[in-house]
Design brief:
The chain has about 350 residues and is an alpha+beta fold. The strands form two sheets. Strands 2-3-1-6-7 form a five-stranded mixed sheet, sandwiched between helices. Strands 4-5 form a two-stranded antiparallel sheet. It is elongated.
């Protein structure tokens, strides 16, 4: 049976849509299928460009991206995130922590029960001593002393174990809290830590949100592999942090980095970010495995200064729009929101 050109094109489009949904871990329900269809069928359209800006470098669309793009599932919510290896590690830690908490609680209850039993024994012994002759009283005192020493020793051992368990839990919780707010690759703050810091600021405090994105990062991954790409990400993040003048720098997602600049003018903040951009462009990256030059790596950045009563979402959206303008204007530049 001969397949027509139209059928071949339709099948190719279907395959491309399926690949897009699989890459971004989206189900084939109508909203997501329509999103993929518009992007694949209109690669130069506004939506396709918006998605390309968010996914340059092989980054998957996030739940936040889906909300910003206005794409909703049947439930009216953005696509739920799919489980990752990091999620499995988090679940394992929670199970371990729950077990430790259970053991600690059991230890404390046992100590409390022993203390209550010991108190009842003391009351009973005191009552018996009042009704006994002196010789029996001396025996009671000797037995009571031995019992007290033994009980105290046992209580001290259990309390020492409980103290060690409590310290172990404290350390584990501190590590978990730190890990939850740190990007493991770059060792910078992660998006959660950044958003929390931004939300904690006094609304009257002048704040500037800067969003930096590595230009053509997909080329590095495709040509040299993800291991090299990871090293480039780490180096770029560390360079931006070193040139940030003490500002909070976070890996915001994929190859994006965010800066929180507080109490500065837009001009000063722009100069800081542009200094970081120049420092990144001045670096010369090479592949460790082959010593082949990777070439110049550059970043584009968009800045937005917060205004009175502005929401975090609006501030971030304005910085993102400025970053998009920097990308479309030729990359390797810093622009501020209008």
């Amino acid at each position: 049976m001969k397949v027509s050109t139209a059928e071949t094109e339709a099948f190719s489009l279907y395959e491309a849509i399926g690949a897009f949904l699989a890459i971004h871990r989206l189900s084939a329900e109508p909203a997501y299928y329509a999103l993929a269809y518009e992007i694949i069928s209109q690669p130069t359209g506004v939506l396709a460009q918006a998605v390309a800006a968010r996914t340059d470098g092989g980054v998957r669309l996030t739940q936040h991206d889906m909300a910003e793009l206005g794409v909703l599932s049947r439930s009216g919510r953005p696509a739920p995130p799919q489980p990752t290896p990091e999620d499995a590690e988090d679940e394992a830690f929670v199970r371990q922590l729950t077990t430790q908490l259970g053991d600690f609680t059991a230890t404390v209850r046992a100590i409390h029960a022993e203390t209550s039993d010991f108190g009842r024994d003391l009351i009973a012994t005191a009552a018996a001593m009042r009704q006994s002759d002196p010789a029996s009283t001396r025996n009671y005192i000797g037995e009571l002393t031995a019992a007290m020493i033994d009980r105290v020793r046992q209580a001290e051992e259990r309390l020492a174990a409980a103290k060690a368990e409590a310290e172990s839990l404290r350390v584990a919780l501190e590590e978990a809290r730190s890990d939850a707010r740190q990007d493991p690759l770059t060792e910078l703050a992660n998006r959660r830590a950044f958003d929390e810091a931004l939300a904690a600021l006094d609304p009257r405090t002048p704040v500037i949100f800067a969003l930096c994105d590595i230009d053509h990062f997909k080329r590095v991954n495709d040509q040299f592999g993800h291991a090299v790409g990871d090293r480039v990400l780490r180096a770029v993040g560390q360079t931006i942090a070193a040139e940030s003048g003490g500002a909070l720098v976070a890996r915001y997602g994929g190859e994006e980095f965010a800066l929180l600049l507080v109490g500065l003018t837009l001009r000063t903040a722009t100069e800081i970010v542009d200094r970081a951009r120049s420092a990144v462009a001045a670096r010369r990256f090479r592949s460790r495995a082959t010593d082949a030059p990777i070439g110049t790596v550059t970043i584009s950045a968009g800045l937005a200064m917060g205004t009175a009563g502005e929401t975090r979402e609006t501030l971030c959206a304005r910085a993102d729009a400025a970053l998009y303008r920097a990308k479309t204007a030729g990359r390797n530049q810093v622009l501020s929101a209008v």
